[in-house]
Amino acid sequence: MSDKDQQIADDWAAALAEQADDNIETAPLEELTDESTPITEEERRRLDSIMDIPVTISMEVGRTKISIRNLLQLNQGSVVELDRVAGESLDVLVNGTLIAHGEVVVVNDKFGIRLTDVISQTERIKKLR
After folding, report:
1. What are the phi and psi torsion angles at 120 (to 5°)?
2. What are phi and psi for residue 44, nearest 5 degrees?
3. Residue 90, class by beta-carbon neighbours within 10 Å (0-12 exposed, 13-18 middle, 19+ buried)?
4. What sign for the dihedral angle of Cα 100, 103, 107, 109?
5. Which residues in the chain show pLDDT less than 50?
6. Radius of gyration over alpha carbons of the chain, in Å?
7. What strand order describes the sheet that includes 90-94?
8. Which helix (H) or strand (E) covers residue 100, if one does?
9. Are residues 105 and 114 in contact, defined by beta-carbon separation less than 8 angstroms?
10. pLDDT at residue 67, rounded to an integer
11. What is the pLDDT of residue 109?
12. Domains recognised in the chain with CATH numbers
């Protein structure tokens, strides 16, 4: 083992020993409590009535405008330039309304999206107007 590798191993051993030290004081934490008022039975019934309404969620990589002439000339292997740069976040839309931004992930050989920024409710309401 080289001197550098030995130094790294020693640093890890020291960090683990420090972590195992019994003299560590724990910081007191306040108990989290739910201070919101409970919803009434009528509110619960109203909420239940909309919970099963289907919505369409879509992820948008980018957009572009092209003429019908160019659209008809597209074939397999054609490349369409979008208005975003590589690595930029995707838009997450519900029924056409932007609700979040995210990044593509692969889980069990399937594509998914990790939300990186959720648009606040007030901002979403402003965009509806």
Report:
1. -65, 155
2. -65, -40
3. buried
4. positive
5. none
6. 26
7. 57-60, 90-94, 97-107, 110-118
8. strand 97-107
9. yes
10. 93
11. 87
12. 55-128 (2.30.330.10)
User: Which residues lie closer than 8 Å to 95 by C-beta, 6 or more apart?
Assistant: 55, 56
What is the spatial distance between Cα 33 and Cα 52, in angstroms, rounded to a whole number? 29
Selection from 88, 43, 82 nearest residue 63 by Cα? 82
SS3 at position 116 = strand
DSSP string, 49-96: HHHT----EEEE-------HHHHHT--TT-----SS-TTPPEEEEETT
Q: Please give the Cα distance from 84 to 35 (Å, whole number).
A: 43
Query: Tokens representing 118?
Result: 């959720």
Tell me the C-alpha distance between 42 and 9, whole Å: 62
Would you give the distance in Å from CA 98 to the centre of its chain?
13
> Which tokens in the block code for residue 80?
């369409």
Residue 82 contacts residue 64 (beta carbons within 8 Å):
yes
Nearest to 99 by CA among 57, 41, 36, 43: 57
Q: CA–CA separation, 102 vs 91, rounded Å?
A: 7
